Amino acid sequence: MNTTILSSSLFFLFSFLITALAINSKECLDPVTNHGSHKISPYETSCPLAEAIIFTGVERAVAADPRMAASLLRLHFHDCFVNGCDGSVLLDDTPNFTGEKTAAPNLNSIRGFDVIDAIKSELEAACPGTVSCADTLAVAARDSVSLMGGPSWEVEMGRKDSLTASKKEAEDNIPGPNSNVATLTQKFKDQGLSQGDMVVLSGAHTMGKARCATFTSRFRAQPPGSPAAGDDEFLQSLQQLCSSGSNNTLADLDLVTPATFDNQYYANLISGEGLLPSDQGLLAPDAGAAGDLVPAYASNAGAFFEDFAAAMVRMGRLEGYGV
């Protein structure tokens, strides 16, 4: 082969890869070593302070804004449900693709990007090009739960960051706030997760907030037995809260212990005080076996914590498009 042509081809390929990295990231798409399959501590020698750096960053962010704990947990969830846990939720739009940030389930909803960027900057200073953003999201989610009083678990790491994202996949894959049990179950099944995983991971709504736009159907007239059925006084309070007409007014997902990760979410469902239609729908007449888990978790925080941690590990294994 002509050496001039070969050199030109290699230069073009190298330039393309560098350009792709440059336009798709700030800190979160620096090249990361291919760690292969997930394992507990791939950074033990390459970046031994990685988890401590992430914890400190999450702790600082949550101390300044307790709501950030739920936001970081949600970032990991929304990342994993779109082509696996590969950090694609962090990517901005480029000329080559429309990212996931403007997808309907994410727009004016997911937050915490600045926190992840700050943590990743510290990781890069300590261990350049080593810790992936996908792993950073997974550890930050675990630490957020733990800091709010919830369980902890060993995070399997070795995820690789994607260079692309998909708005369409985000809109197709991420469960919506008005989904019924059948739809929720199918969305989880599509990811290789069970109905039990769906019910226990829904318990993440024990902390955080939601906008009026996501739960207005809770206080509108519904047929008897619909997922929107609930405590009349509670539903009236929601209607009053949202009466200003602003879809962006916020309400606590758990009105009893909003800043604590506990099993109160399930007790709220039993009393008809689930905020989102998809939450209260876990006890709809057609919920079946999913509904049986609600009182079980409401009465046993230990079981909820154990099952939640195990489900987070399973979700964290969803393979992405990282390179």
Automatic annotation (TrEMBL):
GO terms for molecular function: heme binding; lactoperoxidase activity; metal ion binding. Keywords: Calcium, Disulfide bond, Glycoprotein, Heme, Hydrogen peroxide, Iron, Metal-binding, Oxidoreductase, Peroxidase, Pyrrolidone carboxylic acid, Secreted, Signal. Residues 43-323 form the Plant heme peroxidase family profile domain. Binds 1 heme b (iron(II)-protoporphyrin IX) group per subunit. Ca(2+) 1 binds at residues 79, 82, 84, 86, 88, 100. GO terms for cellular component: extracellular region. This is Peroxidase. The gene is PER40.
